[in-house]
Design a protein that fits this description.
Helix content is 10%, strand content 37%. It is mainly β. The protein has one domain. A hairpin with an 8-residue loop joins strand 3 and strand 4. The longest helix is centred in the N-terminal third of the chain and has 4 residues.
Length: 41
């Protein structure tokens, strides 16, 4: 998982990426390609 300043670029890498807020942190998750994971905050 990458910790990034901007999740917009991480979201555009794959069309199945979703931006999710959990416990005050912002995550990019992808069910079909689990390697595209990122966190902010």
């Amino acid at each position: 998982m990458k910790v990034r300043n901007s999740l917009k670029a991480a979201k555009k890498r794959h069309r199945a990426c979703r931006v999710v807020r959990r416990k005050g942190r912002v995550y990019v998750i992808n069910k079909t390609q689990p390697r595209f994971k990122a966190r902010q905050g």
